[in-house]
Amino acid sequence: MENKNVQGxxxxxxxxxxxxxxxxxxxxxxxxxxxxxxWCHSPxxxxxxPQILFAASRCRLCGLCVSECTTGAQKITDRKRIFQRELCxxxxxxxxxxxxxxxxxxxxxFTAKQVVKEVVADKPFFQNSGGxxxxxxxxxxxxxxxxxxxLRLLKEEQIHTIIETxxxxxxxxxxxxxxxxxxxxxxxxxxxxxxxxxxIGGDVDVVFSNLRRLRKVTDxxxxxxxxxxxxxxxxxxxxxxxxxxxxxxxxxxxxxxYNTSAGAKYEWCGRTYxxxxxKSDIEKLEWYKKMAPKGTDVFxxx
Length: 302
What we know:
Elements: E1 7-17, E2 25-30, E3 51-54, H1 64-68, E4 74-77, E5 80-83, H2 93-97, E6 103-106, E7 108-111, H3 112-120, H4 123-129, E8 132-136, H5 144-156, E9 160-165, H6 171-178, E10 183-187, H7 193-199, H8 204-215, E11 221-227, H9 235-247, E12 252-257, H10 262-268, H11 282-290, E13 297-300
Parallel strand pairs: 2-8, 8-9, 9-10, 10-11, 11-12, 12-13
Antiparallel strand pairs: 1-2, 1-7, 3-6, 4-5
Helix pairs in contact: 3-5, 5-6
């Protein structure tokens, strides 16, 4: 059903991207996720509502934010900036006066029509490169009506669409999106039920069940595995990944090497990053590529 005025929360729109699908793409990142992967490279995506990010290294102690803050959340004590998040009401006044970019807001409300209007400006680049739009998160299923309407409007513009999803959500919403989606990038994180619950949260059976049902309506599915050393890159998990691909007749898999830049974002959110400094073993991934089932293409993404 047409609903161009449906609204949603977005934390970023990234133009001229070349690593989230074929050609030049515009990536739309919706806010909110039901999971909490310990390695999440966008912790600001997890909360559904807007939030203030504070990059302490950029602060020059000018005091403008303290003057604007009406709740006492912003303080300077002994030449040190303190952000008391528990007092913040997210009015965003502090971000509007911070000239150094130390304080920013993650999350802005858009209508589907507003999003597509911004995206359509990139259409010539899509046409020349075979690109299009990728919608990611957070988790797209958290804002299903909003995302489905964006997809519908993009298809009216004949723009190629990719959805990136964990598969964790209402299956009926995923099927609605499938009508307007050219390719699904479907996460395979961990196949083991207990490990999934420990590192990610939730029930992995939901992910597998939704994948089986989605596969009945489309064969344009790519399994994508974040490579987290010692957690997802074990032989048992690779076996589970390949078994899942075979059972669902999925013929393309992407390994996503660990993103080492995630730590700073946790600081901005006032959170502690648990994993610390680790690095993907590319040689191990090359070996795992050779183990892939016949007829399955495996790519190590840059």
